[in-house]
Amino acid sequence: MPQQAHPRRCYIGLGSNLREPAAQLARAFDELAGLPRTRLVRRSSLYLSAPMGKPNQPEFVNAVALLETELSPPHLLEALLAIEAQHGRVRGEPNGPRTLDLDLLLVGGEAIHLPQLDVPHPRMHERAFVLRPLAELDPEALIPGQPPLRELLAAVSDQRVARLGAHP
Fold first, then answer.
1. Predicted model pTM
2. Which residues make Cβ contacts (< 8 Å) with residue 7, sequence separation at least 6?
3. Is CATH 3.30.70.100 the right assignment for the domain spanning 8-165?
4. Which residues are catalytic, by number?
């Protein structure tokens, strides 16, 4: 009989700035919880943030989810892309508006470099809209190859990110 995979703790970044962003994220949390061999452990509050790189668009609503999953990182990424597609995500211009963005931020303490997947997620350490909700879930979270989370947060303290409210 094949051996069961051990669940991995994974952090997923969520973001939306189109078609009722808070509702998009609420649905996405439910869809993450419904993934096979996966459990939604915790979810952060929602955070409002200014768009990066392309300022003439609506503000984003962002959050982070903590999952425990037996899915391999490539299979988890495939599932995240399928959820984005269900939300009408169209990949156009980089940093452009989107109905839903799901990013695989961290997989345990692993560094993964595949053609379709880089973990930790590139540039997550430079983005307050990722670091603030991550710190809410785990103030001691470690990002491979980066300084402690409190130092990363201090470096992005000039980025405007406002907490919208708590979630159970």
1. 0.93
2. 37, 39, 68, 69, 70
3. no
4. 89, 98, 101, 103
